Amino acid sequence: MLVRKAARVVVAVLGLLLPLVAVGAPSASADPQALARTLYYDVSQAQEFAADWDTAAANWNKSVTNVKLARRASGTPTNIRILADDGWPRAYVSSLGNGTVYMGRQAVQQGYYRPRISTHEIGHILGLPDRRTGLCTDLMSGSSAPVSCRNDLPNSAERAEVDRRFAGLLAASDVRAAGYAGSEECFVY
User: Fold this and answer.
1) What is the pLDDT, as a whole number, of residue 145?
2) What is the per-residue pLDDT for 36?
3) Distance CA 71, CA 174 (A)
4) pLDDT the model gives residue 184
5) Short-list 92, 102, 154, CA closest to 125
6) Is there a contact between 154 and 123 (Cβ–Cβ < 8 Å)?
7) How many other CB atoms are found less than 10 A from the CB of residue 79?
């Protein structure tokens, strides 16, 4: 008798909780972009290169699903500061999805493709290291690829790595990207 009463109470409680679980859980058909983490970039100090950073954001946005880049609007936080100077392009990563990037005019004057540079530097902020393969197909090969290289899109391995880094708890807790040491890492194009 006591067991039957307990079973009825458990069934009743589950019956009350089931609709709440069903409403709160995302469906398999949920829009993946709605679940993506948004990073805001600030081009107010990018000088003549602002459009190149917008191109970089568009390149990443069409390549990955777990993170999206958006130009910072008034009242929104800044994850990525973008600057221009006469040095070499570089990225200072403070944590996954956060840091400062420079469009250095030195590489531009040597003929490197500006959208490739900007997309590459954002790749560092998204957790990718330099991979000096010399291949134009590898975005993260940076300046080891020929000056004539015009590929400004990440390859499938680079896309998968960024999506993995921003999946689940890793993105939610904004932990440091695996492989980074110290409080800030600098990558030079």
Assistant:
1) 97
2) 80
3) 19
4) 59
5) 92
6) yes
7) 22
Provide the sign of the torsion angle of the four alpha carbons 59, 44, 92, 168, taken in this order.
negative
Residues whose CB is less than 8 angstroms from the CB of residue 77 and which lie 6 or more positions away in sequence, other chains included: 40
Tell me, rounded to whole angstroms, the distance of Cα 178 from its chain centroid.
14
Tokens of 89: 């392009």
Sequence-distant (≥ 6) Cβ neighbours of residue 164 within 8 angstroms: none
Q: Chunk the chain into consecutive blocks of 10 residues (it has 189) and report each block's average pLDDT, rounded to whole numbers.
A: 57 45 38 71 98 98 98 94 97 97 97 98 98 97 97 98 85 40 58
Position 176 scores a pLDDT of 37
pTM above 0.90, yes or no: no
**Structure-block tokens of residue 141:** 């090969």
Write out the chain in H/E/C secondary structure. CHHHHHHHHHHHHHHHHHHHHHHHCCCCCCCHHHHCEEEEEEEEECHHHHHHHHHHHHHHHCCCCCEEEEECCCCCCCCEEEEEECCCCEEEEEECCEEEEEEEHHHHHCCCCHHHHHHHHHHHHCCCCCCCCCCCCCHHHHHHCCCCCCCCCCCHHHHHHHHHHCCHHHHHHCCCCCCCCCCCEEEEC
Angle at 185 between CA 179 and CA 189, to 5 degrees: 100
In the numeric block, the tokens 């390859």 are attached to 155
Active centre residues (catalytic):
121
